[in-house]
TrEMBL record:
<feature type="transmembrane region" description="Helical">
    <location>
        <begin position="231"/>
        <end position="257"/>
    </location>
</feature>
<feature type="transmembrane region" description="Helical">
    <location>
        <begin position="263"/>
        <end position="289"/>
    </location>
</feature>
<keyword id="KW-1133">Transmembrane helix</keyword>
<feature type="domain" description="Glycosyltransferase 2-like">
    <location>
        <begin position="6"/>
        <end position="170"/>
    </location>
</feature>
<feature type="region of interest" description="Disordered">
    <location>
        <begin position="315"/>
        <end position="337"/>
    </location>
</feature>
<protein>
    <submittedName>
        <fullName>Glycosyltransferase family 2 protein</fullName>
    </submittedName>
</protein>
<keyword id="KW-0812">Transmembrane</keyword>
<keyword id="KW-0808">Transferase</keyword>
<dbReference type="InterPro" id="IPR029044">
    <property type="entry name" value="Nucleotide-diphossugar_trans"/>
</dbReference>
<keyword id="KW-0328">Glycosyltransferase</keyword>
<dbReference type="InterPro" id="IPR001173">
    <property type="entry name" value="Glyco_trans_2-like"/>
</dbReference>
<dbReference type="InterPro" id="IPR050256">
    <property type="entry name" value="Glycosyltransferase_2"/>
</dbReference>
<dbReference type="Pfam" id="PF00535">
    <property type="entry name" value="Glycos_transf_2"/>
</dbReference>
<feature type="compositionally biased region" description="Low complexity">
    <location>
        <begin position="315"/>
        <end position="330"/>
    </location>
</feature>
<keyword id="KW-0472">Membrane</keyword>
Length: 337
């Protein structure tokens, strides 16, 4: 029986990478004769001609497909769009810039064949990142793993293969704001790892600058932990205790030795210090409230403008597995091409 494998590739301004990607991927096909592959490029609102490149590649190669989102929804949304589309026996997620070597997918498939439902690519080096970035990433993972329900590793990204069973579970998580790496971990299943060397970006520049990475990290923590919210009750209690103790000391001092007026600096320090702490507390509340606000609107995670593939596949995609789910509903849009 022929098994099917969908390879989901989110693309944002990857016009210059796509043909390289296809050329690197093509030799894989004859290596796995028992499989039908589809490479699904998800154009995430690129400003360049990425989608016309995808269209051309899809016209030339039967195994290349494309999904065009209406605008840039972010990598997580693009991955979700691909996940919603793919109903193959296995789904692979990888970047378009060839930082994830296509050859590794062969190893993924081999492990999957052995019965592992989740095969995760593990980076053996992160030479491509700056030292400052690595340091910050390290701090993030330490904090996150300490306070979150899910445990993440710095060496694992979205580059992975999941079995259809896992993909079905993952599709049940319909939250709007999606930190995929955390969601992958949240669904469970014991992963096996395949080590790989991160390649250099074939073309263009990374979309993840420091600010975007910082926001991504915030998303990761707020998506999977409420510790930053709960910490304030304890911190408040501690501050209250210290404050009461100090007050008691001052009152005793006044009773025993009379009133001493100096204390201006102490007062100022306390006011400034505690206002700062309070504002951080409010800020953290805000992070969560903002996310609740975005989530309750129940807007779809992404919207699809058009798709390119052969007509059979398009018909299949027009019948989503879970018609009630919000993102799947997006498929029903008449724009389906
Ligand atoms: N990407 C995307 N939408 C975005 C940003 C990035 O689909 O808004 C894609 C991008 O085209 C690439 C992958 O996500 O295939 C990883 O992005 P990038 O290479 O810029 O990040 P890095 O490898 O530096 O983490
Ligand atoms: Mg990259």
């Amino acid at each position: 029986m022929n098994k099917t494998i969908s390879v989901i590739v989110p693309c944002f301004n990857e016009s210059g990478s796509l043909s390289h990607f296809v050329d690197r991927f093509r030799p894989l096909l004859p290596r796995h004769p028992g499989y039908t592959f589809e490479v699904v490029f998800v154009n995430d609102g690129s400003a360049d001609d990425t989608f016309s490149r995808i269209r051309a590649l899809a016209a030339a190669e039967s195994w290349v497909k494309g999904i065009n989102l209406t605008r840039n929804f972010g990598k997580e949304a693009a991955l979700t769009a691909g996940l919603d589309y793919a109903h193959s026996d296995a789904v692979v997620f990888m970047d378009a810039d060839l930082q994830h070597p296509p050859e590794v997918v062969s190893d993924f498939i081999a492990r999957w064949e052995q019965g592992h439902e989740v095969v995760v690519g593990r980076r053996v080096s992160r030479d491509t990142d700056t030292r400052a970035y690595r340091l910050l990433a390290n701090v993030f993972y330490r904090i996150s793993n300490r306070i979150s329900d899910v445990k993440l590793s710095e060496h694992e990204g979205d580059f992975r293969l999941i079995d259809r069973k896992v993909a079905d579970k993952l599709r049940q998580l319909r939250e709007n704001r999606r930190f995929m790496k955390g969601l992958f971990a949240w669904v469970g299943y014991e992963p096996v790892f395949v080590e790989y060397e991160v390649g250099r970006r074939i073309n263009g520049v990374s979309s993840f600058n420091t600010w975007r990475s910082w926001n991504f990290a915030l998303e990761g923590i707020t998506s999977f932990s409420t510790v930053p919210l709960r910490i304030w009750s304890y911190l408040g209690g501690l501050v209250l205790l210290i404050g009461l103790g100090y007050l008691l000391a001052i009152v005793l001092q006044a009773i025993l030795y009379g009133v001493v007026t100096p204390g201006y600096v102490t007062l100022l320090a306390a006011v400034v210090g505690f206002s700062g702490v309070l504002m951080i507390g409010i800020g953290i509340l805000g992070e969560y409230i903002g996310r609740i606000y975005m989530e309750v609107k129940q807007r779809p995670t992404y919207l699809v403008k058009e798709m390119v593939s052969n007509p059979l596949e398009t018909a299949q995609a027009a019948q989503p597995a879970q018609p009630e789910s919000r993102s799947a509903a997006a498929w029903g849009a008449p724009a389906d091409g």
